[in-house]
Amino acid sequence: MAANSLDRAKQAVRTQVWDALTAADAVHDPSVHGRIPHFKGAEQAAARLATLPAWQRASVVKAVPDKAQLPVWARALEEGKTVYMAVPRLATPKPFYLLDPASLTVPPAEAAASRTAAAIAPTVEVDALRPLDLIILGSVAVNRDGARIGKGAVYSDIEFALLTEAGLVTSETIVVTTVHALQVTDTLKLPLDVGHLETGT
């Protein structure tokens, strides 16, 4: 599929999902268009994710600063996992925050908020990261084959490429996302953006 056609196909899927979430009053944001949906039920999705063996085995995870995934980061810190979170837009020379549960000065649920993380967590270069057991992504749409569409800003793609080049992502690294049930589509063919996902809905 040509690049322009692929972009149009992705945008059509995003719009359909954003419209469905809005119609169902399934998000917290006044307008979900153009965003990773901050969906209602994110805490329950995080709890379901925590039942996966891949989550239970993981000691080092990379998170994203999306509100929908905040319960996931908080749970990771509460369980003693080391969390790396991308600086928004990768805008600093050291593009990841290091959240070490052993050295937190605030409760995990508070530390997981991106503004708090920016205030309390040191930033680190890619070379300073430990190998990742689990990568958590925000998504607009997914299917059960593991395909994913983000909001179109490509930062997840850039992060994934940086981490892969550094040898921190391997074939053993699990990539997961948490989404609302309305974000899971089995009727639309999704282009594969990043990795192979396990979904918590």
Can you describe this structure?
With 201 residues, the protein is an alpha/beta fold. The chain is 32% helix and 16% strand. The chain has helices at residues 3-23, 42-49, 53-57, 70-78, 108-111, 114-120, 155-165; strands spanning 60-63, 82-86, 96-99, 123-124, 134-137, 141-142, 148-149, 174-178, 197-200. The strands form 2 sheets. A 7-stranded mixed beta sheet has the order 4-3-2-1-5-8-9. The model has no long low-confidence stretch (mean pLDDT 87).
Number of alpha- plus pi-helical segments: 7
Profile the largest sheet.
7 strands, mixed
Radius of gyration (Å): 16 Å
Terminal Cα span: 29 Å
Oligomer: single chain
> What class would the helix/strand composition place it in?
alpha/beta
Helix content: 25-40%
Strand content: 15-25%
Q: What is the string of helix and strand elements?
A: HHHEHEEHHEEEEHEE
The number of distinct β-strands equals: 9
* Mean pLDDT reading: 87
TL;DR of this structure?
With 201 residues, this protein is an alpha/beta fold. It has helices at residues 3-23, 42-49, 53-57, 70-78, 108-111, 114-120, 155-165, and strands at residues 60-63, 82-86, 96-99, 123-124, 134-137, 141-142, 148-149, 174-178, 197-200. α2 (42-49) crosses α4 (70-78).
Keywords summarizing the entry:
201 residues, alpha/beta, seven-stranded mixed beta sheet, two-stranded antiparallel ribbon, 7 helices, 32% helix, 16% strand
